[in-house]
């Protein structure tokens, strides 16, 4: 990836670097409880849950111990992130939390057995439409029939931003790369449908974010 790292509002100082190698991002700290409250409704009764773009790893480390009858699999594109994800894994010491897998969610996916839920937090606005479509295709192909894809982040409705802050954030992203930025909910729905996923729910989340949930197989 030859692009320089994006400047994001509060991912700048991923500063809380703990002595054991865990990174702690303020945004992940803030939104974890609200995300889990919604996500838990889609966690299958067995099999595997895959997190894309795990980042620091603190979300999945917070979630896995509370749903111990499923295997939680972290992943990220970045080799640099693997150390922090692994450090969070050691810290929570949950037997159902796997070591992270490094892969590009917009590229070829490794095989994941018995995948009932794929979730991703704060990725779609940071990638191009083309890459977002590829991520949706990857999730749709990898999920079990009846499985869910849970996508949390900031979105637009028919080109309209949900707040002035969202419009400013989108502008700051497109100033860095004109091909990235907020996705329209209507565009998301069409892309999901094209891949055999149907929109199951759109949950309002704190700070104007949404959790868009799609189901494989209607
Ligand atoms: C803003 S961070 C979000 C991290 C975490 N989900 C959170 O909410 O704290 C975006 C993450 O997406 C990862 N990422 C970017 N493009 C990706 C891709 N194509 N496939 C997988 N991960 C990707 C980055 O390495 C980074 O860790």
Quick structural gist:
With 218 residues, this protein is of the alpha/beta class.
Explain how this protein is built.
The chain has 218 residues and is of the alpha/beta class. The chain has one domain (16-216): Rossmann fold, CATH 3.40.50.150. It is built from six helices and twelve strands. The strands form four sheets. The protein has a six-stranded mixed sheet with strand order 4-3-7-8-12-11, with helices on both faces. β9, α5 (164-176) and β10 (183-184) form a beta-alpha-beta unit. The N and C termini lie far apart (36 Å). The structure holds S-adenosylmethionine (SAM). Residues 8, 11, 25, 28, 52-56, 59, 76-78, 81, 104-106, 121-123, 126-127, 131 line the site of S-adenosylmethionine.
Layout of secondary structure:
Elements: E1 16-17, E2 23-24, H1 26-39, E3 48-52, H2 58-63, E4 71-73, E5 75-76, H3 81-92, E6 101-102, E7 115-121, H4 129-142, E8 148-153, E9 155-156, H5 164-176, E10 183-184, H6 185-194, E11 197-204, E12 210-216
Parallel strand pairs: 3-4, 3-7, 5-6, 7-8, 9-10
Antiparallel strand pairs: 1-2, 8-12, 11-12
Bound molecules: S-adenosylmethionine.
S-adenosylmethionine is lined by residues 8, 11, 25, 28, 52-56, 59, 76-78, 81, 104-106, 121-123, 126-127, 131.
